[in-house]
Write the structure tokens for this entry.
Amino acid sequence: MAKPIPYEVRPTPTETTAREELDRLLESCHRHGLLRLANDLVSANTDVAQIIVGGLQNAGTLNAIQNLSALLMALSCFPPAEFYRLVFALTDGAARLATCSRDGAGDHPAQQGEQPPGLVGVYRLLRDERLWRALGPIIEGLKGFAEGLEKPVANPISDFSGKSGRAS
């Protein structure tokens, strides 16, 4: 009698293979013109390089690159949680400012047709604890801003890193 032939049923593939994904990516790049752009860039690499180098030699471009790097250095000093708080506090403040300017003076009594507070009202404002708690961080921030403006900086990268560099 004949020996039975072993037969194993292969599972139907449910996921695409890497080759199929690569073919799909290549076809998408071709359909959207990305391959043509890349091919044109490679073919004209000397022309493109001359344009890029010519653009980088402008004083304005160099200033923009240095300013962008200074901004990134400043952002690197902020822990993400503090930066998040700062950005959304600015967003909340700007939203309130926009609401107050759109509606008049916000929820201040003078908006309902009453007279401005006068000397007694100003005196009460000076003794308002909430006002001083709100103004305290703003005043400290302005002090730090003023100190930063007074500090002379010859080379921003050296000032940031503490390392000596070439004098510009």
